[in-house]
TrEMBL record:
Pfam families: RE_AlwI
Protein name: Uncharacterized protein
Length: 266
């Protein structure tokens, strides 16, 4: 048991390191221009011999969104001062700065990541439990479509325009053709389940107006059909369990008969 706990801990630690590294790689890509600027300040600081100039350079190097007086920024400044006093190489100073800067930037994304996870949960596309993601079976085609897309970062000049466009990004369920196709497939499943369970469905419950072109109305119709399909599936599963219990009772009765020599006796 101790060995299994150790393996699990090592797995969690490895996952955490991998995620941190991926976040740092993305931060390095997103903040490439700012990193170049800070590294240039660092090179000047490494060569500088003027104390007053060093102070201003350090402030420019370590400052974050909250300024240069945060605890983390002050610690980095002191570490860079110590490294310079020890005649450390420029590479060592750059390594220490990047360790601080990339983790600082990537850690600020946690709130955004948490909000994104909540939005995905609300969408009904998937559920998230610890490190496991379960895709809803009836939404698999939508998820596959999202994953297959080639996304690219928007330029700052285009971002606000993209952000405030309520029609973007367009998902399959925003298109009437996809909605009609899914409605027809769901309706066929409902009719099939209705026959299998011998439950009559009211015609008005499954009646869809062919003239509907509003995607919002179609999504409501699809949601209603999906709920009916789910209820029928649950009832079908209950019938299956009932049949299995009946079969188990028959098997037990059969073995009891053998035990009491009612059948296959000598």
């Amino acid at each position: 048991r101790k060995g299994l706990s150790r393996i699990r801990k090592e797995g969690r630690d490895a996952t955490r390191r991998y995620i941190t590294q991926q976040q740092c790689n993305m931060a390095e890509l997103l903040h490439e221009d700012e990193i170049k600027e800070r590294l240039e300040y660092l090179r000047v600081y490494h060569k500088s011999e003027k104390h007053t100039k060093d102070k201003e350079l350090l402030r420019m190097i370590v400052k974050s969104g909250k300024g240069a007086n945060t605890g983390a920024a002050i610690r980095l400044a002191n570490e860079l001062i110590d490294l310079k006093r020890q005649n450390a190489s420029l590479e060592e100073l750059e390594k220490r700065f990047l360790f601080y800067y990339l983790r600082l930037k990537s850690s600020s994304w946690k709130d955004y990541i948490d909000a994104t996870a909540r939005y995905f949960r609300m969408s009904g596309l998937l559920t998230i439990h610890r490190s496991r993601i379960n895709i809803a079976e009836h939404c698999r085609d939508i998820v596959e479509w999202i994953v297959s897309r080639k996304w690219q970062l928007k330029k700052k000049s285009d971002y606000l325009e993209y952000l405030h466009d309520c029609t973007l990004p367009a998902l399959p369920q925003d298109k009437t053709a996809y909605l009609w196709q899914t409605i027809e497939e769901t309706l066929r499943d409902v009719i099939k389940l209705s026959k299998a369970t011998k439950i009559q469905i009211e015609p008005r419950a499954v009646k869809i107006d062919k003239e509907i072109t509003d995607s919002l109305v179609l999504r409501r119709q699809l949601l209603r059909l999906t709920d009916i399909k789910r209820e029928l599936r649950e009832y079908e599963y209950m019938l299956l369990l009932h049949r299995e219990i009946s079969e188990i009772d028959k098997i037990i009765e059969y073995f009891d008969s053998i035990k009491h020599n009612d059948i296959l006796g000598h």
